Amino acid sequence: MTKRRSNLFPSTYKFIIGILLFIGSFIVAMVFGAADTSLNDVWLAFTSDVQTDIVTIIRELRLPREVAAIFVGAALAVSGAIMQGLTRNPLADPGLFGLTAGANAALAVTIALLPSANYFTIMIACFIGAAIGAMLVFGIGAMKKGGFSPLRIVLAGAAVSAFLFAVAEGIGLYFKVSKGISMWTAGGLIGTTWSQLQIIIPFILIGIFVSFLLSRQLTILSLNEELAVGLGQKITQIKSVLFVIIILLAGASVALVGNMAFIGLMIPHIVRAIVGTDYRFILPMSALIGASFMLVADTLGRTINAPFETPVASIVALMGLPFFLVIVRKGGKAFS
């Protein structure tokens, strides 16, 4: 009993630190930006009915943008953690496994063929595209004898992603909608509205909540599939549900901010170094750290070259690519 309590206290402290980091990142994101704002302005925006230009900017522009950053960061981090546990592949990431490229291609098709499509239709198209992208990658990765390997699946993901991005570009050029597609796929949070969030957030919340419910089963699957069968788990059903969750989270994220690779790769590795290999702790901590990371990245994008915007996807890629190379060099064990 004493040992169990001593193990719980460190995890409790780690989650408290994670929550404080998240709160701090949110406050910084709300205060800093192209517009000159202060903590007092942010406080007034949340606690009063004052209608000044600065308060309106905070409420109608900055707040929905940062709420989007929170949910997208959490969704991509959790989906990456699920993929790494499900495939036992340290290089798994929605952006590297074709999901975001598939969602982008589906988004391009929808904008070209259904120019009057509403946001809900675009989101459903992204779900379908993410599923197609993932199936192509896993199908190609499984063609050779010997099953999946981390290197083979990453190479398949790179090939499929390049093909699907080319498809999206080709559709944009042929139908003369390149500008509209690029606005969606640039990987940014500019122009996020409350109406978009009302549609997208429920899907992300459902996906994350169900993943938490299946975290124990995911832990066993990530260790040994035969052990999971021996313990009576219905692994086909569990894998199917987790795969649907990954598609929901990745598709919703692309519908909101476009292509965003490496978050789902980096955050779970960092989190495992903090909380261990139990997905009951990995998934909630990934949601916290992923949200904090996305808030910081968006703040940097708004402030590095203010008043001009630096694409968030570029900032994430600058940090994510070296991380990816380190993980490849260390065989996936650099941070785990």
Notes on the protein architecture:
The protein has 336 residues and is an all-alpha fold. It has one domain: Orthogonal Bundle (ABC transporter involved in vitamin B12 uptake, BtuC). The chain contains 14 helices and no strands. The protein has helices at residues 2-31, 39-47, 53-87, 99-113, 119-141, 150-174, 178-185, 194-213, 215-223, 225-230, 235-257, 263-275, 279-303, 312-329. α4 crosses α5 (119-141) and α5 crosses α11. The radius of gyration is 20 Å and the shape is globular. Residues 1-6 have low confidence and may be disordered.
Specify the biggest β-sheet: none
Question: Globular, elongated, flat, extended or rod-shaped: what is the shape?
Answer: globular
Cα distance, first to last residue? 27 Å
Under CATH, the topology can be stated as ABC transporter involved in vitamin B12 uptake, BtuC
What pattern of helices and strands is seen along the backbone? HHHHHHHHHHHHHH
Low-confidence segments, given as residue ranges, are 1-6
CATH class value:
Mainly Alpha
Global mean pLDDT: 86
**CATH homology group:** ABC transporter involved in vitamin B12 uptake, BtuC
Query: Hey, roughly how much beta strand do the residues contain?
Result: under 5%
User: Strand pairing plus helix content: what structural class?
Assistant: mainly alpha
Q: What is the total tally of β strands? A: 0
Radius of gyration: 20 Å
- Count of structural domains: 1
The CATH architecture classification is Orthogonal Bundle
Number of helices: 14
Q: Estimate the helix proportion, in percent.
A: over 70%
